[in-house]
Amino acid sequence: MKNMNKVDVNTKLVSYCGLYCGSCGKYTKGKCPGCAENEKATWCKIRKCCIEKGINSCAQCDEFSDVKDCKMFDNFVAKMFEFVFKSDRKAGVKMIKDSGYEEFAKYMTENKLVSIKKEKN
Known about the structure:
Number of helices: 5
Helix content: 25-40%
Number of domains: 1
Distance between the termini: 39 Å
Oligomer: single chain
């Protein structure tokens, strides 16, 4: 069993949609290989899209200037996920665009975050 207090910075654990698998309980317990390696995640349209485009995440997509304009990224299930978990994947994608994968992974690791928390309005 991996130790949740010991999370390594690893850019390969940045998910396609702006989450960080390296801080996820399932990943740290060895129950999930992370987004990029999860062959069973055929249901994830974002993962499929990024793989088809040959990009590491939505942050590298040049089809939309703002990820919220992508219907695949900003769909009903994603909105429910964000509501329930108070998650802001768009902020994660923006941080990756602005600071790069290494800084994103470092920030998420240091703060033990799977997703950036949604700001209260």
